[in-house]
Amino acid sequence: MRSRMVLPLVAVVAVLALVAGCAKAPDPERIDAVKAALQAAKAAEADRYVPQQYAAANDSLNAALAEIEKQNGKFAPFRKYGVAEHLLQVAEEKAKEAAQAAAVKREEVKNEATALIQQVTDATAQVKKLFAKAPRGKEGRQALELIKSDIGVVDNTVAEANAAMEKGDYLTARDKAKAALDKANALINELQEVISKKAALTKKR
């Protein structure tokens, strides 16, 4: 009688042990490897140059860690880490892809910033030439002072763009160069309009 009860119990224990063995949590080294891939992506500035791809990798890692915690909270025989393993794999792949994409994007932005700085340098030179030709008079004195102040702002912004380029911060360099170029072009239009109006008045006289 006793042997009849013991045998089924042994079988149940064996099945539970088998299930538990198949439901082993990911090794800490595996998780560390994924975290390292994400850190490498951040070192490549993926969070700045391809933020969506970086966020996707980070989200997958967080989802994997949350899934591991969820499974850890269950009774051992019912733990399953397949989803967590898959999410870790996805996170690692996305992190590596983000790092590669960031390198490509960084080079694109560098070239864009270089071109913009050249454009704004040329535009600033044109602004200064036009400013020298602008009519001087009591009525336009205040406007010229404002334009002179704006030229100083453009010069400072270009200097900041160049400084960012030297530091390898191409995103900042591009944004500052673009802002300076927009301002310089607006000043060109404003000065050309003033000079044209003055020329028209002189012609009538």
Query: What is the CA-atom radius of gyration, in angstroms?
Result: 33 Å
Question: Would you list the SSEs in sequence order as H and E?
Answer: HHHHHHH
**Broad shape:** rod-shaped
User: Percent of residues in helical segments?
Assistant: over 70%
Counted by DSSP, the helix tally is 7
Terminal-residue CA separation: 128 Å
The overall strand count is 0
Can you give the mean pLDDT? Answer: 89
Low-pLDDT segments, ≥5 res? 10-22
Main sheet: strands, sense, barrel: none
Percent of residues in beta strands?
Answer: under 5%
**Category from helices, strands and their pairing:** mainly alpha
Could you explain the architecture of this structure?
The protein is mainly alpha-helical and 205 residues long. It is 86% helix and 0% strand. The chain is built from 7 helices and no strands. It has helices at 2-22, 28-43, 46-49, 51-72, 82-133, 141-167, 170-204. The longest helix has 52 residues, at 82-133. The chain is rod-shaped. Residues 10-22 have low confidence and may be disordered.
